[in-house]
Write a structure and sequence with these properties.
Order of helices and strands of chain A: HHEEEEEEEHHHEHHEEH
Largest interface: A-B, 49 and 49 residues
Oligomer: homodimer
Helix content of chain A: 40-55%
Number of helices of chain A: 8
DNA sequence: CGAGGTCTTGAAGACGATCAACAAACGTGG
DNA sequence: CCACGTTTGTTGATCGTCTTCAAGACCTCG
């Protein structure tokens, strides 16, 4: 299994050899997008969905005055843009946080999967349902948690997701983001992000130097975050 | 077309006679849930998905101390709980805001649809993708809009959704909710909901008496809300 | 080595929370 | 049909979190 998506989906249900082969062959080409550039823009109706092979990307929506809200972070193995297969035009943009490598999957191929591979279709569908579950989790954070809780939650979520695909271990990971961008994800100001990071540091819950985040007290962080990982559906069972 | 779901899905793509017949026959039974009761609770793994035939329901998640965040409102014709077909256990609860009539659809039937009805599968999948798009829209509101903007958005969204299924017209609709529950949707306190409603009233944008909400100045309300209805995907095209 | 972006800190002020009290509406039983 | 209790809506006062503005320190990269 040398494919990040197969790794990831394999955590949720068993994939047959045939299904794995289909996933390996789905993509027609690889596209590279530079840090800061958009992969897809709000309003477009792309003919391909893209799978993130390498790098970090965000889903985001912007308001007329330029204010931004990041609605999700994506990492290697995420089928970032599966939504655009059926949902057109795009209601949001996908932007590269770092340089990204993306595998393009034509919508015609996905349509064929829905016609010939019911089990794989359900797995892909599930993938988008988990995106929705993560959205709900973020809504709770944005609506009901103070800044420290929101940040703590994000750290817990990202660590578990990265760990699940082998991109983090030992409670530490690289998070290549500016505090300004983090503000757009947490729904607070850049200045306050800075103060909130310091608050978690002072409480002995994390260290954060450059891009490296280390969780020093997972239980403490989980308490501040009121975090329960069930929504990530990281356990395998037949669908 | 005497079925609310057929009405609704018909706005997004054409349904064949056969597909309409399948939808009519999917449901094995009707369940009634009283106002305030839960339809499904967080943590459960139901064997049926439920389709809301009559009444208002919410999706919600609660924190350990009892604070609540409503993540969506659902109305007649919404396939509220399609998520639980593949996403188990439930990451959130579904609760009845008013007395609700729900049609139960066994997951085995849905599985059969995915195996025999690719087009209908895509339509159902799309339905959950639109739920996700609405979630993203709410995240922008929760993260980046002041209370007045959040409330204005909700009113715009609900009006358009109700109108699309024939449950509202002439810029007025019944919204049977308490200000406390509204607070749990908007991520603010109950007291502040009250003041925010008054603010929109004073600005001449709405009236709100008892459960009846009337939009007096749609353009004005849309501006306060920074509302763009694209995300609701209310237009029909082949999927 | 200089320049632009990013991080950090301080001070003032806004928005919304919380607490408290009262008014109005609603439902229920007498 | 009215009396009463409970829930919901309304208002005022005070407090806290987070915003905004501003300035300086650090750092990275050409």
């Amino acid at each position: 299994m040398a494919h990040p998506l197969i790794d990831k989906l394999g955590h949720r249900d068993r994939l047959s050899e045939n299904e794995q082969a289909i996933i390996m062959e789905m993509s027609t080409s690889i596209r590279t997008v530079e840090a800061g550039d958009d992969v897809v823009k709000e309003g477009e109706s792309p003919e391909n969905s893209c799978l993130l092979v390498e790098g970090w990307a965000t889903r985001n929506k912007s308001l007329s005055d330029g204010r931004l809200q990041i609605t999700a972070f994506h990492i290697a193995g995420d089928f970032v843009d599966l939504h655009s297969f059926l949902l057109k035009p795009m209601d949001h943009s996908i932007s590269a946080l770092t340089r990204c490598k993306l595998a393009l999957v034509p919508h015609a191929t996905l349509k064929k999967v829905t016609e010939e591979q019911p089990h794989l279709t359900r797995i892909f569908w599930l993938n988008t349902l988990i995106d929705a579950a993560i959205h709900r989790e973020w809504m709770v954070a944005l609506g009901r948690l103070p800044a420290s809780g929101r940040l703590a939650r994000l750290i817990c979520e990202l660590y578990l997701r990265l760990e699940a695909v082998g991109l983090a271990k030992a409670l530490t990971f690289e998070f290549p983001i500016t505090q300004t961008a983090l503000a757009d994800a947490l729904g607070i100001s850049g200045v306050h992000v800075n103060r909130t990071i310091q608050e978690l540091r002072r409480a002995g819950l994390i260290t954060w130097q450059g891009a490296r985040v280390t969780i020093k007290d997972f239980d403490g962080l989980r308490d501040v975050a009121e975090f329960d990982p069930t929504y990530l559906n990281l356990t395998s069972h037949p669908r």
